[in-house]
């Protein structure tokens, strides 16, 4: 594994290729060579051999305190549970599904399954019975571990339709501990043998895409895919993974481990012996409490979380009568972050003396409060899922939290690009991860190639795996641009491009991302395909609206009664006007309507990873869309 305290690697400049003066391809050489042997199953045991006393995880106790778990303790637990899986009759190559929130048991069972030679299949805990049954059937899973009794019970009526499923375990009933007890008669050597036959090309996991349309597809990821991803990420992001001070690196995982982003970071942390905690609840009060008690040094987040922290800070300041002061502080932070960026790129001298003084003035008043909301010690955040936006990235940089923004997919084992340390370009998703190539096709589609590129899609009816990357290039379906420095910017989704009646191509993502960052807006969907102009459906953020009502002396009323509130609509119109500055006049939003209810996963409007299911939204709100184009 990479040395925990190896020297900081030199920043590898990208190789840039142009066609007709336009950057079409960018690549960065790997920092870590391709793995030739071994598997993810070895990580706990390698850690125990190299540094048995190092803390690699921390587990929350019933009283709310955190109990550290050493590398030796975790390896022993992995071994015990792996032997239990063997005792239950599972054989190498069997698929075992895990359906739970982000918990310690999730990570433990993941590594135990690999140590037993198995393949793990994540299932979102919010998945419907139909979605869960489909994944279990398609993957041929022989076992399922759920977090709760209710999740297991909901599948009861479907069991006769899943003949491969032979085992069901429930975390809250102590079944993981029971597995450890069952395996006591199995010799340790059996696990050693099973680990020994695994290699980089062995299938590690089937991760099913959330599916904005149609049924989810299983992405076949190997142990080698994860090594290519995490080893290069660890070396590149050395400020996160290789802290040498007493402020040892740690992170609190709260994004779903069912998603490749959270899973990859969990593996990277164990690989680098960075302490991990798990936070199963995303409720604001619960998450803030866990952040306050765990005190991580870095986070992985989606833009929604960082937007929420910013908006909550703004609302708190306004309640204290300091809204204007917060806005001034936010502007100073953005200017500071942009000045630092310019210095790092050699295009400016950096923050002026007056700007440094202003930032120092507001640090204890505003920026420290933002950092304290994240636990007080956070200095870095890895952000993915959708573009964060230049404004917010610059604010956090100025507030003392460096953002590493990335782009990737399940098919690329998470990140394919990431912000390079000490050389960010705000508003982009960075350079290719070392060992990765990015190409822009003639129609603007992003193509990716590299060691983390998946083997293909799982199809049991076609012999197992179907190659989806001819010639080693995967067509992402996303649209992007490469600038002269090799930085990638995401401009939209190929299938989501709207073509107005006037023939104008419109990418909805930039407008939607901008509007979603507004404290009063929960979700936004831009419409206008084959229509005379572009419009938008907007839903209200409950917390933001509650704060707005308090500050404006309005009585608490249901959201459906606020959709025609003139004062609220005027604020939203200003937000739309601000968003329209990003685009040309034919691409701008001419009209919008406020919906009486939010888009939810339960209603089928969002995927588990918070992406819009556009066809479902257009169907369910067809009347609202038609009203936007009524004469």
From TrEMBL:
Which protein is depicted? Answer: Acyl-CoA synthetase
Give the family from UniProt.
Belongs to the ATP-dependent AMP-binding enzyme family.
Q: Pfam families from the xrefs?
A: AMP-binding, AMP-binding_C_3
Q: Which CDD domains match?
A: VL_LC_FACS_like (cd05907)
State the UniProt keywords alphabetically: Fatty acid metabolism, Ligase, Lipid metabolism
In terms of superkingdom, the source organism counts as Bacteria
Q: Which residues form the AMP-dependent synthetase/ligase domain?
A: 47-458
Task: Indicate whether DNA-binding appears among the record's keywords.
Answer: no
What SUPFAM superfamilies does the annotation carry? Acetyl-CoA synthetase-like (SSF56801)
Q: Would the keyword Nuclease be found if you checked this record's keyword annotation? A: no
Q: Which PROSITE patterns match?
A: AMP_BINDING
């Amino acid at each position: 594994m990479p040395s925990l305290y190896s020297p900081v690697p030199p920043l590898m400049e990208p190789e840039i290729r142009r066609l007709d003066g336009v950057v079409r391809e960018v690549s960065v050489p790997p920092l870590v060579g391709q793995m030739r042997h071994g598997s993810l199953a070895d990580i706990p045991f390698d850690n125990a051999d190299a540094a048995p006393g190092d803390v690699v995880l921390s587990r929350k106790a019933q009283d709310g305190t955190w109990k550290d778990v050493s590398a030796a303790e975790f390896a022993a637990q992995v071994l015990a549970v792996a032997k239990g899986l063997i005792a239950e009759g599972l054989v190498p190559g069997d698929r075992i599904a895990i359906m739970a929130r982000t918990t310690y048991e999730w990570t433990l069972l993941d590594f135990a399954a690999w140590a037993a030679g198995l393949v793990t299949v994540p299932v979102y805990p919010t998945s419907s019975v139909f979605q869960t049954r489909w994944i279990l059937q398609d993957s041929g899973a022989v076992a399922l571990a759920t977090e709760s009794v209710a999740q297991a019970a909901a599948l009861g009526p479907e069991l006769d339709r899943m003949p491969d499923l032979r085992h069901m375990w429930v975390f809250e009933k102590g079944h993981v501990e029971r597995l450890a007890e069952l395996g006591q008669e199995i010799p340790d050597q059996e696990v050693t043998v099973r680990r020994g036959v695994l290699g980089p090309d062995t299938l590690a996991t089937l991760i099913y895409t959330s599916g904005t349309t149609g049924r989810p597809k299983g992405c076949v990821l190997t142990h080698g895919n994860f090594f290519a991803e995490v080893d290069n990420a660890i070396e590149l992001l050395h400020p996160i993974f290789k802290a040498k001070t007493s402020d040892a690196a740690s992170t609190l995982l709260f994004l779903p481990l069912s998603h490749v982003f959270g899973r990859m970071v969990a593996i990277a942390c164990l690989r680098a012996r960075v302490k991990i905690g798990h936070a199963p609840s995303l409720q604001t009060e619960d998450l803030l409490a866990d952040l306050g008690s765990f005190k991580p040094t870095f986070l992985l987040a989606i833009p929604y979380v960082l937007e929420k922290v910013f908006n909550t800070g703004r609302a708190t300041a306004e309640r204290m009568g300091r809204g204007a002061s917060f806005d001034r502080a936010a502007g100073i932070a953005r200017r500071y972050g942009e000045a630092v960026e310019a210095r790092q790129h050699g295009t400016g001298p950096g923050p002026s003396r007056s700007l440094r003084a202003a930032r120092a003035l507001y640090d204890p008043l505003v920026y420290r409060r933002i950092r304290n909301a994240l636990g007080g010690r956070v200095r870095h955040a890895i952000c993915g899922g959708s573009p964060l936006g230049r404004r917010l990235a610059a604010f956090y940089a100025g507030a003392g939290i460096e953002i590493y923004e990335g782009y990737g997919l399940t098919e690329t084992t998470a990140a394919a690009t990431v912000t390079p340390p000490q050389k960010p370009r705000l508003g982009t998703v960075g350079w290719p991860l070392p060992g990765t190539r990015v190409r822009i096709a003639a129609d603007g589609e992003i193509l990716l190639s590299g060691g983390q590129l998946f083997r293909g899609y799982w199809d049991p009816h076609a012999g197992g795996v179907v190659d989806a990357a001819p010639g080693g290039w995967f067509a992402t379906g996303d649209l992007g641009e490469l600038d002269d420095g090799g930085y990638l910017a995401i401009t939209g989704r190929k299938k989501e491009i709207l073509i107005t009646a006037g023939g104008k191509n419109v990418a909805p993502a930039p407008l939607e991302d901008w509007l979603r960052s507004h404290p009063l807006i929960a979700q936004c969907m831009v419409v206008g395909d084959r229509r005379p102009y572009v419009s938008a459906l907007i839903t209200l953020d409950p917390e933001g609206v509650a704060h707005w009502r308090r500050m404006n002396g309005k009585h608490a009323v249901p959201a459906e009664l606020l959709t025609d509130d003139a004062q609220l609509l005027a604020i939203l119109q200003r937000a739309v006007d601000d968003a329209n500055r990003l685009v040309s006049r034919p691409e701008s939003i001419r009209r919008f309507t406020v919906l009486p209810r939010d888009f939810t996963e339960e209603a089928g409007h969002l995927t588990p990873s918070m992406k819009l299911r556009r066809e479902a939204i257009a169907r369910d709100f067809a009347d609202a869309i038609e009203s936007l184009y009524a004469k």
